[in-house]
Amino acid sequence: MKTDNSARQRIERVWLTEAACDIEAFRAEVERRTNLADYPYASSCDQNVLIYNSVELIAACGNAETRRAVLAEICEALATGPGVAVFKRAFADTAAVDVASTVFDEIIEEQHRSNSGGGDHFAKPGANDRIWNSLEKHCLKAPANFAAYYGNAIIALVSEAWLGPNYQMTAQVNRVNPGGAAQSAHRDYHLGFQTAAVIEQYPLHVHKLSPVLTLQGAVAHCDMPLESGPTLFLPYSQTYVPGYLALNRPEFRAYFDEHHVQLPLEKGDVVFFNPALFHAAGNNRSTDIRRVANLLQVSSAFGRAMETVDRLTMSATLYPALKALLAKGKLTEAEAANAIASCAEGYSFPTNLDRDPPLGGLAPKTQAQLMREALAAGTSEQDFQSALDAQAKRKLS
């Protein structure tokens, strides 16, 4: 039998809490200087951010051994280094970027006409124009340009460096118009899109796992001087493991506001960063610059289940049984919740954020939430089936 003290120590080792976040421990992690000598393939370092000359970097990958060395350097830069790197002139010829910008403008104009799209996880409504799933919309509207754009060697190189082969690309366009306010500082998907109450339910090793499941990047579709509000970064902040919870605390937000760095970008540059890095889109203080970036979110090949499961049909079938068992007292509320967890989809993603936006939070309602709410409200089987079908339809591309 464990003593109360040893049990408490184990709990504190496994379960991170917002209350336990320590600003001094955080300062010790982030107040470091990047030594350019540790990154021989980088051309320079600006405000702790590594800068790579894309043409030279691709040339260095001319043989297999050197390419492995480049991949290893980029991986360590994102993992234990500053966590962010800029790849200058990743699109040496920006013609593909210009054509893609025209495609994105047409999509945004159509969204305005149809009063659809938009929204942002970490910015006020109306601060920008957002194209959810720009990857699919781009491919279907201009496949030849899509091929030229995503044929980019730097995008492939950095994605492989962080995630290995067989990664899966997604993308969302963000256009911050003049006067658009900055985002709040945040970390990204997966845990970064959950509330503190949900994040605290995940053990420590999942906090460490989340950042290696995805990679964040952004392609600059226009020149981005500082007044246009390019992304704010806090180098090395990805190394603070409790950081998904820390950003809810005012002292951590204040530290970010005081110590973040911001670099201007040119059209055709690409910036990649660890999804656990503290960051936020900046305030567009310009009067005439529509700051356009295609935000890349690349996912690990391993972030998916082995079998295809029709959870919609399972949920519709299980619902009347659960309803009857609960009414007869043959199943407790806790047992019903356990059964739902094994039946219904308990995660909000992937979804179609145009039709299924994160209303009132960071993530849309899950199938499991829908089922629990229906049981609590005594919803009829027919109405629950209709709600399931409507939710599933919203998630389609």
Describe, in short, the structure shown.
By secondary structure, the protein is an alpha+beta fold.
Describe it.
The structure is a single chain. By secondary structure, the protein is an alpha+beta fold. The chain has 16 helices and eleven strands. The strands form two sheets. Strands 1-2-3-9-6-11-5-4 form an eight-stranded mixed β-sheet. Strands 8-7-10 form a three-stranded antiparallel β-sheet, with no helix packed on it. A hairpin with a 2-residue loop joins strand 1 (44-46) and strand 2. Helix 13 (311-327) packs antiparallel against helix 14 (333-343). The N and C termini lie far apart (53 Å).
Please state how the strands of the largest beta sheet are arranged side by side: 1-2-3-9-6-11-5-4
- Count of spatially separate domains: 2
Instruction: Determine the N-to-C terminus distance.
Output: 53 Å
Major sheet size, sense and barrel closure:
8 strands, mixed
- Tell me the Rg in angstroms: 23 Å
Assign the CATH architecture of the largest domain. Answer: Sandwich
Unreliable stretches (pLDDT < 50, length at least 5) are none
According to CATH, the fold-level topology of the largest domain is Jelly Rolls
**Which H/E pattern describes the elements?**
HHEEHHEHEHHHEHHEEHHEEEEHHHH
Number of helices: 16
The backbone outline, from C-alpha atoms, is: globular
Helical amount among residues, as a percent range?
40-55%
Report the structural category. Answer: alpha+beta
Strand content: 5-15%
**What is the highest CATH level, the class of the largest domain?**
Mainly Beta
